[in-house]
What does this fold into?
Amino acid sequence: MNVTSYDRTVIVKHLKENLGHPDEGWSNEGGPDRIRVARFPDQPWEGINTFATDGLSSHLLSMGQDVGTARMEVLFAAYPRYSSEAIAGFVLSFCDFVLSKHWAFVSGEIVGPYKWPIIEGVELNAVYSAPFTYFEDNLHFCPGTSPPTVICWVLPIHAAEAAYIRKHGHEAFDNLVEANDPDLWDLNRESVV
It folds into this structure.
């Protein structure tokens, strides 16, 4: 028998243990199953805002044929000069997209490019499920739910970067990012390809 369990407080505790205490939050209109986005200042280091969801993991999401299901929450990080409200709005919209597909956004996957930027006034128009290079290792995985919840870093990217990943694979892109060391918190950064 496959037993599943979910408790929002487990996710919230996990986020606070790894990111500290949030200073602001937003939510969609979903009743008790609503998705919330919290802003954690100075994470993963000073001068960066990290946004994390709780509530998405109340849904079991498909990981593909013959792979099974997973629980997922979303992480997004940027400099404070970008509108927190706009970022939270994008994150909530992205969660709505994930739920509409009932699909887990796993490492190396891309969504977009869109015809418009992910947030008004920035250049990036696609997102990539990035490896957790800059965040604490413990943050990536929350074992307190069944199945465990994976925290997915949604990294904004350029259309050209999305095309590169589709052609050469996500590992080649990760190597480019490591070699070029772009400012990933800057939503108007130059493309690495």
The longest strand covers residues 69-78.
